[in-house]
């Protein structure tokens, strides 16, 4: 328990507004080995980084459920918790050996089984998780979201958990983690209001108001950060990121956009606390993953390298002319 608590506290401390945690997400052992090898590079921040885990540019590891599903030849919404957990169990010992804390993507926590899911990932070695507020997964912990009538982007059409309901689920997740041996479990609470604006039909002002309301409720419930992103050509705009940072005290997480969008440094200057890339690296050729990851860890922007990645970025709304993320 002491080790998990220390690792969770370390992960939480890395979420610093203006000096964000940067996460090149992984999805299998090959991507993990590629990403963790960055800390062994002579150009890392310390020549002794290989002997002092976490002293290089890579500070933590996070998974991406979309990329895990893609590696299994299925859609994100079809990924069962059993499949997700099996991959987490495969990766966790390697992350531990690299001396880094692990945050995992558990979608919406698989419905009413959220406490069971969190306990299982803690037992596997995770000290943090992304938890979405859109009803995505079946209540059957063995089932994915496919049985639930999946809509746009792998989600049901704009069906959100209620604000208080989701806040309660976050509290339950944190409590379950503590009972499983990880007090201080780090929740990155994801809100998809911007992404699903087209499905909900809400105005920009309504979407922002709900994002702020939900963000504050999730933080009050114990989340470390709240993750926002745009999609389907909408994107997340600079002024929106600025507003969210202001309203939520900087405890904001975002997904890095594609080439031509804001860089890690620019987002850090706005004041966000966490930056990830989601499944984007999984669309690059294996030989390009490390270089792109090093670029973003160094403060740069995400670079589109292959046509498949460009198509994916467009689907996720990361290439909109009006978008920055």
From TrEMBL:
State one molecular function term (GO): catalytic activity
What InterPro entries does the database record attribute to this sequence?
Answer: ICL/PEPM, Pyrv/PenolPyrv_kinase-like_dom, Pyrv_kinase-like_dom_sf
Name the domain of life this protein comes from: Eukaryota
Protein name, please?
A: Phosphoenolpyruvate phosphomutase-domain-containing protein
């Amino acid at each position: 328990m002491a080790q998990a608590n220390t690792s969770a506290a370390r992960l939480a401390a890395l979420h610093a507004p203006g000096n964000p945690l940067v996460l090149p997400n992984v999805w299998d052992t090959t991507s993990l080995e590629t990403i963790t090898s960055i800390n062994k590079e002579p150009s890392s921040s310390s020549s002794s980084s290989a002997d002092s885990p976490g002293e290089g540019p890579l500070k933590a590891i996070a998974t991406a459920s979309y990329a895990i599903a893609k590696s299994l030849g299925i859609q994100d919404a079809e990924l069962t918790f059993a499949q997700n957990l099996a991959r987490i169990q495969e990766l966790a010992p390697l992350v531990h050996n690299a001396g880094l804390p692990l945050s995992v993507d558990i979608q919406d926590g698989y419905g009413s089984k959220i406490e069971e899911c969190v306990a299982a990932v803690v037992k596997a070695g995770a000290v943090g998780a992304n938890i979405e507020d859109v009803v995505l997964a079946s209540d059957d912990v063995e089932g994915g979201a496919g049985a639930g009538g999946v809509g746009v982007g792998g989600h049901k059409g704009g069906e959100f958990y209620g604000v208080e309901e989701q806040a309660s689920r976050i509290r339950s997740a944190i409590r379950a983690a503590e009972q499983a041996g990880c007090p201080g479990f780090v929740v990155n609470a994801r809100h998809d209001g911007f992404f699903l604006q087209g499905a909900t039909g809400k105005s920009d002002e309504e979407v922002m108001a709900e994002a702020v309301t939900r963000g504050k409720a999730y933080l009050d419930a114990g989340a470390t950060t709240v993750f926002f992103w745009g999609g389907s050509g909408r994107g997340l705009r600079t002024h929106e990121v600025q507003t969210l940072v202001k309203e939520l005290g900087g405890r904001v997480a975002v997904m890095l956009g594609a080439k031509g969008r804001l860089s890690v440094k620019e987002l850090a200057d706005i004041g966000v606390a966490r930056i990830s890339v989601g499944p984007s690296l999984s669309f690059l050729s294996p030989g390009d993953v490390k270089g792109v990851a090093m670029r973003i860890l160094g403060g740069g922007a995400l670079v589109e390298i292959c046509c498949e990645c460009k198509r994916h970025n467009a689907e996720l709304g990361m290439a909109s002319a009006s978008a920055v993320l």
